[in-house]
C-alpha cells in the first residue's frame, strides 16, 4: 500500500462551508482525492499553545471561534470521534523526537479543523486527533512535528495541516467591511508570494522554504503574523524527505486572498 499523502489546505472563514466558491468545491472534493483515512491528525492554525499539545478527547465538541457570520454556522455540529489511543501514541512519537508534548483531555473542533472536515468527510465517521501549533516557533519546528509523525502515513493515517497560504485579514476587512479600495499592487504581491512557494517546492529547496521569512517576497503583505502558514510546514515535514509536492488547488477571492492547497506524496 502506498503511503497516505500529507495535506495542507487553506480553510478560509466558516462561510466557505455554505457559500459557493472554487475553494468550497475543492474542499468538498477532497475526500474523493484521497484514500479513505483510518484516522486524521489535524493541525489547525486556530489551536495555538506553548509547545506541542495533543488532544485525547474521545468526543470533541464544537468551537465557534468567529463572529458576524450566518446564524446557521453557529448551529453546525461535526460529531467525528476522537481517538485517545492514537493521541497517546502521537505524544510518544513526539517525545521520542525530543519535542516535549503534553496531552489535553478536552478540546473541541475550531473552524480551522471543522471547515475542511465537514465538507470533505460530511459523515463525520473518521476519528480525528488534534495537534497544536506554537505561534512563537518557526517553520523548522513545525516541519519537525510533521517529520516525527510521518510514519503514520504508512498506516493510512492522514496528516493534515489547515491554515492559509495568505492571510492578510487587515486588507480583507478594509476592503469588504469598510469599503476601502485595496492597494492596487497587492494582488501582484500575493501572486509573487504564492508562486515563490510553488517554485521552491518544485525545485526541492527545503532550506529556502524553511527560511521563508527571510527569502520569500512580500512576507508582511501576506502574513502579518505567522500562525496560518505553520500548518503548511507541518504537512511538508510529514511528507518525508522524498516527498513530491503537488499544488492541488489555486484560487483567489477579492483579488488578494489565496486558497492554495498542497499534497505531499
From TrEMBL:
Short name of one Pfam family: LigB
Gene3D superfamilies: LigB-like
GO molecular function: ferrous iron binding; oxidoreductase activity, acting on single donors with incorporation of molecular oxygen, incorporation of two atoms of oxygen; zinc ion binding
The family this protein is said to belong to: Belongs to the DODA-type extradiol aromatic ring-opening dioxygenase family.
Lineage top rank: taxon: Bacteria
Cofactor: Zn(2+)
Gene source species: Oricola thermophila
Keyword Magnesium: no
Protein keywords: Dioxygenase, Metal-binding, Oxidoreductase, Zinc
Record-annotated Extradiol ring-cleavage dioxygenase class III enzyme subunit B domain positions: 35-251
Residues spanning the membrane: none
Cited InterPro entries: Extradiol_dOase_DODA, Xdiol_dOase_suB
CDD domains the UniProt entry points to: 45_DOPA_Dioxygenase (cd07363)
Protein name: Dioxygenase
Amino acid at each position: 500500500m502506498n503511503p497516505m499523502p500529507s495535506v495542507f489546505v487553506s480553510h478560509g472563514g466558516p462561510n466557505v462551508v455554505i457559500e459557493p466558491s472554487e475553494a468550497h468545491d475543492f474542499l468538498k472534493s477532497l475526500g474523493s482525492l484521497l484514500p479513505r483515512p483510518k484516522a486524521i491528525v489535524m493541525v489547525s492554525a486556530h489551536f495555538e499553545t506553548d509547545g506541542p499539545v495533543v488532544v485525547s478527547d474521545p468526543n470533541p465538541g464544537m468551537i465557534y471561534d468567529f463572529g458576524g457570520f450566518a446564524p446557521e454556522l453557529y448551529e453546525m455540529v461535526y460529531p467525528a470521534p476522537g481517538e485517545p489511543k492514537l493521541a497517546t501514541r502521537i505524544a510518544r512519537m513526539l517525545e521520542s523526537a525530543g519535542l516535549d508534548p503534553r496531552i489535553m483531555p478536552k478540546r473541541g473542533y475550531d473552524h480551522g479543523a471543522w471547515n475542511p472536515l465537514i465538507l470533505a468527510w460530511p459523515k463525520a465517521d473518521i476519528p480525528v486527533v488534534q495537534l497544536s501549533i506554537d505561534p512563537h516557533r518557526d517553520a523548522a519546528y513545525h516541519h519537525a512535528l510533521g517529520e516525527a509523525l510521518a510514519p503514520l502515513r504508512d498506516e493510512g493515517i492522514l496528516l493534515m495541516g489547515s491554515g492559509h497560504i495568505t492571510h492578510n485579514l487587515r486588507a480583507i476587512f478594509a476592503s469588504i467591511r469598510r469599503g476601502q479600495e485595496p492597494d492596487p499592487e497587492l494582488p501582484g504581491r500575493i501572486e509573487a508570494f504564492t508562486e515563490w512557494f510553488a517554485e521552491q517546492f518544485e525545485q526541492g529547496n527545503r532550506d529556502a522554504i524553511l527560511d521563508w521569512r527571510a527569502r520569500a517576497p512580500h512576507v508582511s503583505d501576506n502574513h502579518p503574523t505567522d500562525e496560518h502558514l505553520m500548518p503548511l510546514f507541518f504537512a511538508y515535514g510529514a511528507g518525508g524527505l522524498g516527498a513530491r509536492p503537488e499544488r492541488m488547488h489555486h484560487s483567489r477571492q477579492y483579488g488578494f486572498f489565496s486558497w492554495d492547497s498542497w499534497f505531499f506524496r
